[in-house]
What does this fold into?
Amino acid sequence: MCGIVGYIGSREAQEILLDCLKRLEYRGYDSAGVAIVSDGEIDVQKSVGEISVLESQIKKISGGAGIAHTRWATHGRPTTENAHPFISCDGKYAVVHNGIITNYMDLRERLIEGGHRFTSDTDSEILAHLIEDAEGEDLFAKVVKALDKVEGAYALAAIDGGAEEIVVARNESPLVIGIGHDENFVASDVTALLRYTNEVLYLHDREVARVQADSVEIYDLEGNHVERGTQKVSWNLEDAERSGYPHFMLKEIFEQPQAVHESLLGRLGSLEEDPFFSENAFSSVKIVGCGTSYHAGLVGKYIIEELSKLPTTVQISSEYRYSSLSEEKPLVVIITQSGETADTLAAAREASRRGCRTLAITNVLGSAITREADTVIYTRAGPEIGVAATKTFVTQLIALYLLGLRLASSRRSISSERRRQIITDMRALPRAIQDVLNNADAIESLTTRSAKSQSIFFIGRHINFPTALEGALKTKEISYIHGEGYPAGELKHGPLALLSTETPVVAICVRDHTYEKMLGNVREVTARGAPVLAIGTEGDRDLEKYAEDVFLVPHVDPLFTPIPIIVVLQLYAYYIAKKRGCPIDKPRNIAKTVTVE
Ligand code: F6R
It folds into this structure.
């Protein structure tokens, strides 16, 4: 959504803030700003566009305390006036904010009646004016009083001219405090801080912290002191940098063998040990998620049903609340790489309210979902910076295979021979992915025609129908070409009307029980003149007879085919977007973490 950072210590805050801000740019990039305390005054500089624009225009201001923001507009257009930080009328307080203040219209009217002048159309600006008006002997007390009046979601950081402290608060938007030596940091996401520290404190909902150069104190909004130990983050700076790749997305696609390896490490031998499963018996599973995580859930349905025989349904997080209540209590599996997606957090709360046990699959240690869910499977993909999810999707699938196996163990629903085979096959997955990556150039050469098209169809059956959906999502979000994923058998019920010689179709034709039917669907498509790229299994010489282009992936058990196939589709989308000159890591209008409903 938006990204916030803060620094307090003896170094020049401006330099550090700009550096941290660049690492948060994936959260928003329509405008940016920095506030530095210098000689008792707050200097605010902002600009429209990416952080590089702000950096090229900024006047150097010396000072050891400051806050900064990169914005993704929700209230008010992306203009300099609407960029953060916001400053109070008396110039004494500055605030940056991520989230949405739902009662801001009321508050704004009241503040205007009280004589405050607003310079922006945003909901966030009210925070600076509320803090100015609030009673309290210091900034901390004033922020707490101001928050009394505020409804909605926020991660905020505030400073005053005293430069003694940064005050931060969180409710439903992520915020992490980085611990240094005689200096401390604040950010929406730990990846912003990895150059400076990997020791962090996560703020929880409805908490507020006083961050000084040599101390951090956390309180809840009722004023109770909160004791919390720091956590060491295992990610390092290299994990969060491009390491020579032209885009984070490509780097993250190439990191997938390692990400899968890490996600399996030490887990295949210890599937029996989680007490969560022995203490809870489930008669069904419900999976919720948004976007790519929802697609992982759709693949998860096939995995869980095949392995555990438990009926599994999948729902988009924002729709879950509208589903009718049933008597039985499914295990609710919540998939969110960031752990902070507002729609998904709301679904998790709704599931708990309905009395369901919840299991989260997430990539971010300490994220909000880890506190909402009863138990968590971490995906260990490392930080994902590119807006398009790649390695987190693949590792979500790994988590779902592990979950399926775990449920199968407690229900004795597969033979020990099948179980052993699955475990052996899972260990071989990093190699299968690497084989696809080794042929990335061949995939690139298959994108020349597609890059010029206006619309691309992706078709598959059974477990690879959701793979087709995910391929379409990747293509549309980063290349701006209309991509449509379809169950292959469904094309003839309408969408065939859209096909022509100008509409490439990517058909997933792996050698499993769907193969013959897929060939039939490919024939339907080629009969309409549409060029087909068939993705098949190595050794398949027949596909060339049916499709104009063919790409073959290593043979894996049918249950695992989505993994090598999605790597092909990620690269396909990537190279199309590259040929079209699109800003791959930061596609227009979308942000990595969506903290509004
Ligand atoms: C697409 C993409 C989004 C996210 C969705 C959910 O590439 O990244 O569709 O999958 O916004 O995000 P998380 O998984 O963080 O809940």
Notes: The mean pLDDT is 94. The chain has three domains: 3-239, 245-427, 437-582. Residues 290-293, 336-338, 341, 344, 388-389, 473, 477, 593-594 surround fructose -6-phosphate (CB under 6 Å).
